[in-house]
Amino acid sequence: MKSITIKGSQRESVGKVSTKALRNAGQVPCVLYGGDKPLHFSAEEIAFKDLVYTPNAHTVVISLDNGDTYNAILQDIQFHPVSDAIMHIDFYQLFDDKEVTMEIPVRRIGNSPGVIAGGVLRMNQRKLKVKALPANLPDFIDADISKLEIGNKLYVTAVGNDDYKIMHPENTVVCQVRVSRAAMKAAQDAAKEEKAAGKAKAE
Q1: Is this prediction's pTM over 0.90?
Q2: 40-74: per-residue pLDDT in tens?
Q3: Rounded to an integer, what distance in angstroms lies between the CA atom of residue 101 and that of residue 200?
């Protein structure tokens, strides 16, 4: 999985006053969990744009100005309810021998015969939660739709991999091909016309 480096500074003071001062200075207060004790640090808000405002999944290298570095994943993020500015971010520290749970984006591959025939592809799950060692975390989970006819569904059991465990029930639908509204309306109109014709003929 691709990694993004976030350069930050460790925080000693974590009260409301210091946190407000950080935000006023364009800094985002952050906490790194998963180690011996929580680590408080801050980084410029612009440093998170490639991590937060993207559909892709990334691990993070937190590089502090004291020389310490930590591998992590984004665990939780809080936005301002009005301005949408980043208010706070929680990270979770990664260890090579410890499995971690993370949401991974689904990438569809192939062409569906059902879509070509006029059906509509519906993505029920755009991300899937997986559990794996950090080295086995995928960038994407590929959903092969090349065999989906109209009415077919692709379940999570078809997109699994030995490198990671998908944390969803086996009957979870990743995507499906449905009859388009236009095709459904045309079929309904045709049925009505046929019924009316049959009634007229009977009379």
Answers
A1: no
A2: 999 999 999 999 988 899 999 999 999 999 999 99
A3: 64
